[in-house]
Every structure is written in structure tokens, then in C-alpha cells.
Amino acid sequence: MSTEEDTKWLQWVTHQFETIAGEDREIDLQEFKAALNVKESFFAERFFTLFDSDGSGTITLQELLEALTLLIHGNPMDKLKFLFQVYDVDGSGSIDVDELRTVLQSCMRESAISLPDEKLDQLTLALFESADKDCNGAITFDELRDELQRFPGVMENLTISAAHWLTPPAAQPRRRRPRLLTSAYWHNHRSHLLCLTAYTVLHVLLFALAASAHRARGPSAMVAKGCGQCLNFDCSFITVLMLRRCLTWLRATWLAQVLPLDRNIQFHQLMGYVVVVLSLVHTVAHVVNFALQAQSEDSPFRFWELLLTTRPGIGWVYGSASPTGVALLLLLVLMFACSSSCIRRSGHFEVFYWTHLSYFPMWILLILHGPNFWKWLLVPGILFFLEKIIGLAISHMGAFCIVEVNLLPSKVTHLLIERPPLFHYRPGDYLYLNVPSIARYEWHPFTISSAPEQKDTIWLHVRSEGQWTNRLYESFKMLCPMDCGSGQLSKSLKRRRSQRRPQSLPSQPMHSGTSAQGAVAFSRDVTVELTSYRPKGTPQQGDQGVVSEMSSENHLLCNIKCYISGPYGTPTRRIFASEHAVLIGAGIGITPFASILQSIMYRHQKRKHICPSCQHSWMDSIQDEDMKLRKVDFIWINRDQRSFEWFVSLLTKLEMDQAEMTQEDPFLELHMYMTSALGKNDMKAIGLQMALDLLAKKEKKDSITGLQTRTQPGRPDWNKVFQKVAAEKKGKVQVFFCGSPALAKVLKGHCEQFSFKFFQENF
What we know:
It catalyses: NADPH + 2 O2 = 2 superoxide + NADP(+) + H(+). The chain is an alpha/beta fold. It has 4 domains: 3-165, Recoverin, domain 1; 189-394; 398-478, Translation factors (Elongation Factor Tu (Ef-tu), domain 3, Beta Barrel); 571-676 and 714-761, Nucleotide-binding domain of ferredoxin-NADP reductase (FNR) module (Rossmann fold), CATH 3.40.50. It is 46% helix and 12% strand. The strands form 3 sheets. Strands 4-3-6-1-2-5 form a 6-stranded antiparallel beta sheet, with helices on both faces.
């Protein structure tokens, strides 16, 4: 650090010390714990003991500066000595196996990782045996140093990450060019920008033509007529953007490459704002025009008569333009206010839903209000009503049943619905679900998490985040499994205990078989799993399809009536047309990729052949017309350990199929991240992460998820991730994301930097 930076750092630490210490200018253990923001008191107490060099029971400013100087600006050897002192609890100059176990247990709590005691013992022994080179039953400083040197870059960057008050705020980075001015932004958003340009040009033309036709009536009339003509187009076309069946059909055509179909909701919202603005300007212009007419000596009508009555005869249906205009404005303001996110996401979805249905009376009023609106509405209106009629006919053709429910970690409800005979969908599609026992008139969209090749049932995974989804979860949680008939119970148990066929049998999709490898390690004895389903008539032989017993608290067999509408297409339909697809899911945002990965597995099984003589297996290298994929990178980011549980059995099966392939480069690569876990550069986690690496290498599987893929701590370094993807050169890269809008914004920026196509699924 330069002298200026060092001075700023000293000033910052002094200021922070005075804030924490208070009037006595000394930090005690409780104040230290609060400032350090650690979850496990073991580390707080160990750090406090080492910071308190004189053993007085408090930390002075001088002691704090000395310790922080070592941790932040010290050389790797100084940091390593501090780490060794943290691990050497009894101060004997060496670390025995019990001390190491205590440290690893505290590391697990600090990273919110829960493993059985047997697994903790295995981790302790793996690290201890690797570090104790002379096998004398203790780890010396030199042995710990040698062990750490096997992990490049760790010693140089070792610190205490949670101590956010150690370093001053970073200086503001140099202001970059706005994203809108970069060539990458224009390249990746050209279809959106072209549509916006066309939309703007159309409005200018409509306004200009209508205004010029009424220029003899003065400026206010010109503005009113110009806005009115634009409103004719907007109020009719705004419904086209929400015709889900039409949009799904368009996704299968070449127009999907030209039109930004994935942005239909955003364009719908944009047009809503435009309608509100144009309506206000249109109204003000007419009010001004009426005021001028009322002041004219030739006018037989007063201002309020022009504005509120039919007496002046303004309009083509009994002079109803003025009163219908007032009614339209009131309806529009009501609809606009109730469409705000604070209404929709605060448990008042019904308010949004019912006020949005006022589009029908608005259309009637618009037909009465404007003489030409019916011409604009003719084609969009026919399409709209046809879609509504078809949708209602299909959704109410017959009620379907939720036949099984699994209550999964993080309040996720796994629904299994009997599949309608003519319900054809593609991976990543979604449907609308109505459960009358929860809410009679509410329909909510959910991504289908089962593969299309699964013939008997449809899977939905519903995260409890809103009023309706919470009611759904709680209603199933309160149901008693004893209510189900014994006949259905025995039938379901037989289906759940289905076993894997021998490899010599014809290939059939196994969508999520749970095995011992696929269980997420957890301290409790209850394993949450996904049921393995097969098409009817599939032979059930072999001994590999192990199914763990479910707790009755988590698993329900039921027969609950529901209605479904769909399916509807999403951006993820483009995945199979990609060459190199990067699938990124955050938490429950993994749902659309569940269906996609299952379908990928099924298609690969179709390509697999087995020699009947030597049992040698190989894969067809010929790609089918619907799947051009050459490489898939699958990235799943979860906050905590339990969030991995509901999907890990499918990933285990994918890894098993991947291992059977003879390709040099893996077709599917898994990348798992757990954000609550601290990284290897943190003193509170380095021991645990080293032990997890060693045990994963020894057992060929990850201790957290049971997968062969090692779960990485923290968040991905997106710059490194995309650099690696670009270096593989497997073809044009397309990134598909489902998760939080904040992360989507970050990923979109990185994709622009690397010229990757970015697609986001809204949920």
C-alpha cells in the first residue's frame, strides 16, 4: 500500500474502533462478536484471544491495529502462523485430531453446512491423515504449511471475510460508458430496439396524419385527434401481446428469430404506460377545446354540457363521446393503479385480477366513444375471443386430479397431476393451474418440471412465496395421509418401488431415480426424494432403482380436483437449437431446467446402443433435427444445503449416464454453488474446504450433495466462468437464466461483454 492509502486505512480502523468500543475505548468479547459478525462463537473467541495479546480480556486500539496489519497486510507466513494458532486450541504447538474435529465442526456451522457425525469424522481423518506426514499423531506448523501449499493462491489471500469493518470503503470506480452506447448492447438487443423504433415511428405517423386532418379546428383539437388515433392502435393491439397460444405458435416459426417474443409482458406494460399518458393528454386537449368552445359566442352549450352530457351530439352513437370518455378515464386509472407491483405482490392478486377484467367494458365504451375503434379492434378482437374460447373449452373439458404431493425443503410443493391425453408440450413450457379448493377463480402460471417423454403425470414444483402458494403448501401440510384409500396407497407404493430395467432392454426414460449416491447429506434421517415414474408396460427388473421411504409428513397421496390451461412456450425452447447452452438457475429457478435435462437424458438414451455379445455400449454421433447441442453447462446456485435435496436425484442419474459415454469431452458439465458456504480464502472455512476436497477425491463424490461434482462455496466468478465457456469453442453460446432480476442484470452485462446471447425466464 502507498503511504496515502495506509494513512486512510489507519483513519478508517481508528474510526471503526471508536464506534465499536464506545466511551471506555476498549472492545470486550461481546462487542467483538457483534462487530466480527460470525455465526460460531468458537472463532470469535479464538480470534479475540489472539487479538488480545496482553491477555487483559479487552482489545485496545494498538492491539487491534497490530492484528489487522498482520491479517490484511502481512505476508503469507504471518497469516499462516495466525491460522495455526487458531487451530492449536490448547497452545501445545501442534494440532491433534480432536482439535481438528472441533475446528471443522465450527467451520461447518459457520458455513451453514449440516453433516452427520460419521461424515464429520471422515472429513477430520481425511485432512489429518493428509497433513500428518510423519504419522506421529499431530500436525505441526510445517506440515500445515505444506498442506496449504497444495492449494494455489489460498495462503496469499487468507483473511477473515466476515470482518467487513476491517477495510475502508472502496473508491468509486471510474465511470464507464452507459450500456446503451456499447456495440455489444445494440448487437444483443437489436430485435427489441427495432420493434421499439417501429412502434415509435408508427405512433408519429398516426399522430401526424390524424392531426393534419383536423388542423382547421385548432391546436387543441389536433392534439386530441392525434392522441386518439394512437389510442385506437394501442387499445386494440395491447391484447395481442397476451395471446399466449398465438405466441407459443409463433415460437415454432422463423418469426421467433426476428420478433422479441420473450419480451411480450414488458411490451404489454410499456403499452399500458403509453395508453395512460396518451389518454391524459387526449383528455386535457379536449377539455381545453371545450373551454374555448364554451367561451365562443356562437356556442349554445356551456362547458359542463360539452364535457358531461350527450346534448352537444359529439360522437357517432347518440353523441356519447363525452360521458363515455369520462367513464373510460376512470376505468383506466383504476386498472392502472391496481396493476402496480405493490398490489400484485402484497397478497392482493384478486384485486389486480378482477380490475384487469375491466378490459371488456372498456372495449364496449371505446366502440361507443370513437367512430373508428371497431375497425382497429376487429382482427385483434377475433383472435382474442377465439383464444379465450379455446382456452376455456380445453381447461374445463374435464377436471384433472392432483394424485400425489411431496412437501420438499424450503417450502417447495411438488405436485404430480395426471396428464391429459392430448396435452403435448416441450421442455421448459409452463401452464396455468387452478385449484378450486384453494381459490375458485385464481389461475397461476408454473413451469412444468417433468420431461415431455413422461406420459402418465405432469410435475410442478411450487415455491411458497405468495399468498396463494403459501395456502397451497399449508393446505397439504394439514392434510392427513390416513384420508387416502388403502387401494390407492398400495398402488402408489408398487409404482414407487419400481426398479431399473437391465441395460439389454429397450431404452426407456428414468426421470429421477433416487439412489444412495443421490441423497443429499443431512443430519436428519429423513431423505427427500423424487419419485421415479415409468411409462406403462415398462419391464421392472434389476436392483439399482432404490427408493428411500418417505416420512408421512412429507408425502401425501390424494385425489384433489384441479384445472390446467396450456401449455405455453418460453425462451427455453431455443435450448435444443443452440450449439453451446449455458443453463443457470438460482434456487427454485432451476425448475424449467429440470424438464430440459430430463429430456436431454432421454434423447441420449435413445442414441445409446449395446452390443449383445460383449455388452460394449456406444452413442450415435448423429444429431437429430430437434437437437443441435454440442455442449451443455449447467450451473445451479443455492443459498443453503437443503435447497439441493429435491433435484439431486436427477443430477445423479445424469452423472451416471455421462460416465457411460465414451466421449473425451463431457457433453454435460455440472457446476454447483452454495452461497452460504465460506470460501477457501476465509480462515473460518479453509480447513473444511480442504477436507471436503480431499474426501471428494477419495470417495469420488461430494459430501454435501452426494454428486460426483464438487459443490463450490460462495458465488460464481462470472468473468472466469464465461472465459472458460468462450475458450471451449463449442459453437455459438446462448445463456439461459431463471432466477432473481438482480442476478439477471449482472449476467446480462457479462453476456454483452462476451457477445453471448442471453435469455431470461420470468417467474
